[in-house]
Design goal:
This protein is mainly α. It is built from 12 helices and 2 strands; from the N terminus they run H-H-E-E-H-H-H-H-H-H-H-H-H-H. The protein has a two-stranded antiparallel sheet.
Length: 263
């Protein structure tokens, strides 16, 4: 495990190489939030709630979603790139698990983004936006557990999409569609609460709700005791399912690469 932690540390430290880019990212994120903060204030003008959701809840949910967008994995087409470079087999014979290395490297990058790009935006937003805190310290802890589970779901979902490189010439379209679906239906642009009920019922059969929607609802305490347990179990179920799919596709894909290499 120590060697994987080193991979994460190296990835974390590498992001310090361009401080100017980090400043630009903070300003860009802050601008994005301010635009949506103003939009929600305008939409809620003269209204206390919309579908039971207050303006402060909507604004806070948007800020949380921005944090998720920073945290959750939206990687490059790394398997496709390795295959085109002809270096995938070389990666596989190294004394480290290729998938675990990618996961820990992403954790290092994510930690940097959250601490040095997202938290500054949160601190600035607290100065002028009417943000709503978690329902209780217990809900805050449960929120972080759910965020971690959502992170693993997002990473596995992305990895499954990248594994399609074993069977197609390009995964750019697949990865792009996946990212767009998560952004649109996950809550980055519009809180899931405001999506049509029929759409939310369809999303139940996808991992999308586990990535953004469930952590936000736990933060605000919108689930009672039983629903909180079911929500966490729902996320764990998606981790198991995506992990199983990823492992099956990975083994089949690697077998295909080895056969082609041997041929």
């Amino acid at each position: 495990m120590e060697k994987y932690i080193k991979f994460a540390t190296i990835k974390f430290m590498s992001n310090f190489e361009n401080p100017f880019n980090n400043i630009i990212e903070i300003l860009e994120t802050l601008l994005f939030f301010v635009i949506y903060w103003y939009v929600f204030r305008t939409l809620y003008q003269g209204k206390q709630t919309v579908d039971g959701i207050t303006c402060s809840m909507a604004v806070t949910a948007m800020l949380l979603s921005i944090g998720f967008d920073y945290s959750y994995y939206k990687g490059k087409m790394y398997i496709q790139e390795k295959m085109r470079q002809g270096t995938l087999l070389v990666e596989l014979i190294k004394p480290v698990d290729f998938r675990l290395r990618l996961l820990f490297e992403d954790m290092g990058k994510t930690l940097f983004f959250v601490v040095f790009r997202y938290l500054p935006v949160v601190l600035i937003a607290m100065l002028f936006a009417n943000l709503q805190g978690p329902k209780s310290s217990f809900h805050f802890i449960l929120f972080f557990i759910s965020v971690f589970l959502g992170y693993i779901i997002s990473w596995l979902f992305d990895f499954v999409c990248n594994e399609m490189a074993f069977f197609t010439l390009s995964v750019w379209g697949i990865v792009s569609i996946k990212n767009a679906l998560i952004d649109v239906f996950g809550g980055v642009f519009v809180p899931v609460w405001f999506l049509p009920v029929a759409v939310r019922h369809i999303l139940i059969f996808t991992p999308v709700l586990s990535i953004y929607y469930i952590p936000v609802n736990l933060y605000f305490g919108l689930y009672d005791g039983v629903k909180m347990i079911l929500a966490i179990l729902y996320q764990i179920l998606w981790i198991v399912l995506l992990g199983w799919i990823s492992d099956r596709v990975w083994k089949r894909g690697i077998d295909q690469v080895i056969l082609k290499g041997a041929g």
